[in-house]
Amino acid sequence: MRRRPSYLCFIALWALVASRHAEPAKASWRLHTESRWIVDKQGRRVKLACVNWASHLEPMVAEGLDKKPVDWISKQIASMGFNCVRLTWPLFMVTNNSLGSMSVAQSFRDLGLVDYIGGIRQNNPSLLDVSVLAAFRAVVTSLGDNNVMVILDNHISKPGWCCSNRDGNGFFGDQYFDPNLWIKGLTRMATMIRRIGNVVGMSLRNELRGPKENLRDWLRYMERGAEVVHSANPHVLVIASGLYYDTDLWFLGHIPMKVSFARKLVFELHWYASSSGTVWEDGNANELCKDATDKVMSKAGFILNQGMPLFVSEFGGELSGQNVNDDRYFNCFFGVAAKLDFDWALWTIVGSYYLRKGIVGMEETFGVLNKDFSGPRNASFLQRISALQAPFQGATSSSPTRRILFHPLTGLCIQRKREQEQLQLGACNESEAWTHTRHHTIRMRGTDLCMQADRLEKPVKLSTDCADHGSRWKTISESKMHFSSNIVGSNVTVCLDIDFSTKTVIASPCKCLREDATCNPASQWFELVNMTRST
Ligand SMILES: *[C@@H]1O[C@H](CO)[C@@H](O)[C@H](O)[C@H]1NC(C)=O
Ligand SMILES: *[C@@H]1O[C@H](CO)[C@@H](O)[C@H](O)[C@H]1NC(C)=O
Ligand SMILES: *[C@@H]1O[C@H](CO)[C@@H](O)[C@H](O)[C@H]1NC(C)=O
Ligand SMILES: *[C@@H]1O[C@H](CO)[C@@H](O)[C@H](O)[C@H]1NC(C)=O
Ligand SMILES: *[C@@H]1O[C@H](CO)[C@@H](O)[C@H](O)[C@H]1NC(C)=O
Asked: Which InterPro entries does the record cross-reference, listed alphabetically (predicted)?
């Protein structure tokens, strides 16, 4: 009872501050769903190409503010081609007044992290003495000023690193997860960001999990959570995590989530190297990619075919190129992500954390920015992911106008070499359109040219002799990403491959089609991707 007046006062103040600063919301920032797609007011597809930005750890402050000005980080995010941030927040920041109203400086002081205070004073002086909630809002606003949409993700209750089965934050009824308090917190957050136009979605709760997990409570509380968010803020997409650490939505095939509103509900999925129990370095990459994809499709991906939007709100791995497990998973993930063209959020922009699991200044090897937030950790990864940032398909046209040949390892696509009969890798938005015909020829659209395996380890040619068996390409191997043919006039089997020194498409002996766990087939992986978007 005693908390109520102070809460109202708190919100009123907040709304006042928010409305003074709020810019008129851009029309394009009002999103809804159209079958499996997320679209703007005009019905045009908006592909969420997000990066996660953590603000849910003990300090309750978005990471990196001691290292760079918030506006600088927002501009980096935008210049890297991300159109959106999934910004994480801890429930108690909005349900516990003494936490939410604590100043940023105080929050670091209480944690004994005084060393960060100087950095924040230097880089973000205006955020040091305001409340953590005001700093949170400033981050959201800064992203908006740079044209970046925001999805607010209730990541955990008690501020700290997430997630484990027994951390008390896993499921409704856990030590720190009182459903009623959660409903209250969602309502408050949804109310607070009402006037901030670039907040386009709210994710109800991250990675539900743990021994209490059950479908009955999932339905009961997620439906309630969705309703309160929608009634407090009808503009945002409402995003729901499945079971088992956000890897499992199997039940949606039989049991719909019932809500009173339409065209706002999105489901999320997390997909890391280990999500499907796969140890990528222990098996054949083709077989494991198929197994992992089959699992993901049967547990969650199937909803796309049922007309529900799927937001892969966390995926990622080490960006060093030194982790075999993560590298193989990425190769597979990139192929599937291009083919299915779902919305996504990479983990993470953060190069290091103030404090993670007791470690001060812990480096984030998955981070797009380097440890001191001064620039990209790996520029070639940014190049690669840029292919997934633009939509391949639009929301309206259902039959593909063309198909492109995507190379997951590089994020590039096959295009014709200028004025030549050869092929090379180049930007997907500038690639040729291909058709894979009934007769297994790969034909360049609008021409009578098709791909032909001319000589071993030599460039694949564009030929008009499409009847030759050197021009028949079948997908082999479990991954279905190897395109195999014979060398013209011989029985030598080859696969499409890349000569990296020239980026030329060549015909090479097929690599590690099955069983072999030691070799990496990724240079030979290509995905034929439907493209309905006109460029
Ligand atoms: C709010 O947070 C403070 C600081 O962590 C804590 O001491 C207090 O018990 C919390 N209050 C409630 C109602 O949870
Ligand atoms: C970036 O990633 C690529 C590919 O995984 C790797 O080969 C390279 O060494 C990485 N660069 C850095 C600086 O980590
Ligand atoms: C690509 O388009 C074809 C032809 O319309 C369709 O059969 C196929 O299911 C599409 N594939 C994907 C992954 O959307
Ligand atoms: C393709 O995308 C790049 C940047 O991503 C852009 O510079 C280029 O103009 C685009 N090309 C076309 C044909 O749209
Ligand atoms: C390819 O193999 C078939 C059957 O083994 C054989 O009849 C044919 O002569 C071979 N062709 C060439 C060009 O070697």
From this structure: GH (IPR017853), Glyco_hydro_5 (IPR001547), Ricin_B-like_lectins (IPR035992), Ricin_B_lectin (IPR000772)
